[in-house]
Amino acid sequence: MKRPSFFDETKVAQVYPIDYVGIADCARRLDVLPATTDRFRTAVLGIDVQNSFCIPGYELFVGGRSGIEAVECNARAVGWLYENTNHITSLYFTLDKHRAWQIFHQPYWIDINGEFPKPGTIITESDLLDSFWTVNPAMERISGESYRYLSQHAVHYVKQLALSGKQLIVWPFHCMQASVGNAMVSVVEEFVHYHSIARHSEPVFIEKGQDTFTEMYSGFKPEVPFDHTGRTIGKTPNINPIDIIMSHDTTYMWGHAKSHCVKATVTSIMDEVMAIDKSLLERIFLIEDASASVVLPSFDFTDSADEAYRYFAESGINIVRTDNHMIGEH
Q: Does residue 201 share a domain with residue 68?
């Protein structure tokens, strides 16, 4: 399919108001059938395509090694989505949504002088045992939990992360609830509205990352699901990813960051699929050139993301690119 005239690739890095009326009028004139008539059903899962990650100058822009990688990826992805509008049955999007007082944000922690850690700080078990970093006493008022509980959970949390080869990183404030950073990228929002009207199909949004006591990179599973008492933490969405996979012939995934939320989301989906029927992995397609990795002055996660994608491919998941694959080509 042709890209609509309103799609302006030069605006991918911008935040701007959406012409909903004009886009709807353009979409209703498109000669395509409703999604309910699709005999071959295709889902697209966009992961955290939000301003905080995708717009230069925002809080946690995923520049990758090129410095503008999220912008480049989004331009390719959205153009490809328009070209496949008539083949996309359903749209799903995970959305990061955070508050200031969470375990991965600065105010949760203080040093001996009462100072917050800087973004990018790694907090380890030894840091906690040596009281180099401690839980901010203000967390008692914020969370309603005792300081003893908070301190014990902190040690439990970093130990649980370490068991799976992960670390607790203090991230910059990002995707704060009701903020501009929390919102979907404008150029993606245009496509979502266009597709909804053209194909008579409602998009599904999956919010994540709102629990005080755990991170949630995956759209469907918290990093640490239980506290030190065995209590469940990390609210999981009502949508089961298996239902998405099972109700569609193919599911395409893309978004940011490839090294974190995409990797974690795909991993959690793959774990559930393999517990049921490994052959279902063949229904999953990762759009490789539509996802950027986190590269910071002190961290470059590109190689670990690429390694994960190699593992996904070896496990049976399809890795494709926007420049050599269209939906329905297998």
A: yes
Q: Which residue has the tokens 């755990």?
A: 214
Range of the domain at 150: 106-169
Lookup result for tokens 């994608």: 309
Band of residue 13 on the pLDDT scale cut at 50, 70, 90? very high
- Give the Cα separation of 105 and 107 in Å (integer): 6
Are 260 and 96 in contact by the 8 Å Cβ rule? The answer is no
CB 104 within 8 A of CB 170: yes
Chain segment 21-41, per-residue pLDDT in tens: 999 999 999 999 999 999 999
Q: What is the spatial distance between Cα 157 and Cα 277, in angstroms, rounded to a whole number? A: 31
Q: List beta partners, residue 296.
A: 299
For residue 134, what are the β-bridge partners?
110
74, two tokens: 């989004």
Beta bridge partners of 318: 285
Q: Return the DSSP state at 181.
A: T
Tell whether 62 and 28 lie within a shared domain.
yes
- In sign, the C-alpha dihedral spanning 123, 125, 130, 133 is positive
Angle subtended by helix axes 186-199 and 20-28, to nearest 10: 40
- CA–CA gap between residue 138 and residue 194 (Å, rounded): 46
**Could you tell me what percentage of the chain is helix, strand and coil, using 3-state DSSP and rounding each to the nearest 5?**
40, 15, 45
Kindly report, residue by residue over 144-169, the tens digit of the pLDDT: 999 999 999 999 999 999 999 999 99
Q: Which residue has the tokens 């989505």?
A: 81
Helix (H, G, I), strand (E, B) or coil at 20: helix
Q: Are residues 113 and 190 in the same domain?
A: no
Same domain, 296 and 264: yes
